[in-house]
């Protein structure tokens, strides 16, 4: 019974650690267009799209019944709105297509069937910057080329230092300082063990 309690306590601590860690870093997201309904005339792409954020590095996946259906990427908002399929950037016809979102900006996808496109089976993706932006350079001005200095004479050795008295309280060592995460894990484990 005591072992079960320790196991549950450790499980809680691990879950807290994973949750805290997951808030720090978020990687690319794979968006399956249409979710379970996939990319077809019955899909409610507007509902699926609601609240989604697309970022550089994410990928969108189209799954559909080939060869009856296809995905067409268009160049402009005008072509997208009017379902003008005459000048596509690319046509996807394999049934499963993974499309990387490599840069910011708008991307326009429609179904290859004119009637289904006119009925609303299309996707406008507004790609935002990645959350994992590079840190800015703290020094925007480069250092100038160093100028040569003439050789300096050797300095004389400093006088012998006098020993200082030993401090009564040693300074805290690095090992006594806990990071916020370590402290949180310690407190969480302690609370679990005492049954709170």
UniProtKB/TrEMBL annotation:
Leader sequence residues: 1-22
One example GO MF annotation: electron transfer activity
Biased composition (Pro residues): 137-156
CDD domains from the UniProt entry: Phytocyanin (cd04216)
Stretches the record annotates as Disordered: 130-178
Residues covered by the Phytocyanin domain: 29-129
Keywords on record: Disulfide bond, Glycoprotein, Signal
GO cellular component, as recorded: plasma membrane
PANTHER family: BLUE COPPER PROTEIN, OS02G0720100 PROTEIN
Protein name: Mavicyanin-like
UniProt source species: Olea europaea subsp. europaea
